[in-house]
Amino acid sequence: MPGFETIDPELRDVLGKRIRELGLKLEGSPVEPYVRQLYKELERRGLRKFRPVCYLTDEWGCPDMQPVLGIPFYLADPNLGKLERAIDDLEDSREIMRYMRHEAGHVFNYAYRLYARPDWVALFGPFDRPYREKYRPVPFSRNYVRHMEGWYAQKHPDEDFAETFAVWLTPGSAWRRRYNGWPAMRKLRYVDRMARRFGDEDPIVRTGEVDITVDDMRLTVEEFYKRAEKERDLRVDLAMDAHLSEIFLTRKPREGRPAAAIVTKYRRELIDKITYWTGVRRAVVRALVEAISKNCERLKLWGEVGHEPAYLVELTAFGTTLAMNFLTRGTFTGDRGRTGAKEPRSNGKRPRPEGPKSEAN
To answer: Do 76 and 30 form a contact (C-beta atoms < 8 A)?
Structure first.
C-alpha cells in the first residue's frame, strides 16, 4: 500500500475527518446508479418483488443470514474514491457490478430462506458447514461456476449459491451455453427455478440487521486506512535473491530502468491476473507483488529498456508459481510447516472475496 506522503495534497484534507461526520448517503451518491442497475437486472430476470436493501459500511458483504447488502463507504464520495485509488485498488464499474450481483445472491438466499430447503442442501451442501477463511479449491472444477476471481464458489455452500446466482443474473453471461454439460448446470437451473417460483412473491424476510453503518464509524479516514494496512501486513517470508537475479540484471545496462520501477508499473496487472487465475486471496497476492518490488529495490536490480514485455511474462510466471505453492501447500516456498504469509482475520461478515478491508471502530 503506497504511503500517505504520495497522496495528492488536495485529498489529504479528508484524512483527518471522522467517517461518520462526512455526511455520506447512498441516495444521490456515485454508487446509487449501480444499485438501480442491479434492480433493473433483477426485474429483467423476473424477480419483480426482490429488491435488496443496500447500505454504506466498511466493506462489501452481507451480515450472516441477514438480507441486506453492504457497500463500501468510499464509493459514495468522489474524493474518497480518488483516495481509495491512490492508497489501494478502487473497483471499476465492472467490478462494482460483479460484487453487487454476488452479494445479491446472498440476499436472495436469506430473503427467501432457500438455505433451509432440503433441495438447496442436497445441491449446495449444508448451510451450517463451518465457514473457513482458508480453503483448498480444485482449480477448474466443473462442479462450480466462476464469477468472482479465483475459485470462490468452493469456499462454502453459501458462496457457491451466491456465485451461481451472480452468473445466472449477469447480462450476456450465456450461462446455458458456457456451462452446458457441466455438473454446475444443475445449480444454475435450480437458481432459475427458484427465480420463477418466487418472482412475484414478497420476500419471507424483507430486511435484516446491519452490522456497521457509516453513522457508526468513529475512525477518521486516515485511521481507517492505517488499521487496514496493519491488518493486511502480510509478512512474506521469501529469499528472492537468486530467483529475481535470474529475471533481471545485477548491473545497470546502457539503457536501463530500475527493476522495482518495472514491477511497480505493472503492479495492478500482476495482482489482477495472478489473483484471477490462482484463486489466492487478493491481499496475499498484493503482499507478494509488493515484496517482489521491495526485493528488486534492495538488490539494486535493473531491466533493459524495451524488454518490458519479456519481464512481465517472467514476473507473471514467477508470481503464479509462488501463489500456487501457497494455494496448495500453505507456503510460498512449498515447504510444509512454515508460514509464508499471515492472513488477515475475518470480522464475522460474509466477506468480499479479497477479504476484509478493516473494522470500522
So the answer is: yes
Contact 176, 24 (CB under 8 A): no
Pairwise CA distance, residues 361 & 216, whole Å = 8
Q: Is the pTM here over 0.85, yes or no?
A: no
Cβ neighbours of 197 (radius 10 Å): 11
Alpha carbon distance 247, 100 (integer Å) = 39
β-sheet bridge partners, residue 162: none
Query: For 214-335, where are the alpha helices, taking DSSP H only?
Result: 221-231, 241-247, 259-265, 267-278, 282-298, 308-329
Shortest CA distance to 45 belongs to which of 193, 152, 154? Answer: 193
* Lookup result for grid cell 517472467: 314
Half-sphere exposure of 337 toward its Cβ, with a 13 Å CA cutoff?
Answer: 0
- What string of pLDDT tens digits covers the 361 residues of the chain? 555 666 777 777 888 899 999 999 999 999 999 999 999 999 999 999 999 999 999 999 999 899 999 999 999 999 999 888 877 778 899 999 999 999 999 999 999 999 999 999 999 999 999 877 667 788 889 999 999 887 889 999 999 999 999 999 999 999 999 999 999 999 999 999 999 999 999 999 988 899 899 999 999 999 998 876 665 545 565 667 778 999 999 999 999 999 999 999 999 999 999 998 888 878 788 889 988 999 999 999 999 999 999 999 999 999 999 988 887 777 787 665 443 333 333 334 544 444 434 334 4
> Which SS3 state, helix, strand or coil, does residue 131 take?
coil
Find out whether 231 and 358 touch, Cβ atoms under 8 Å.
Answer: yes
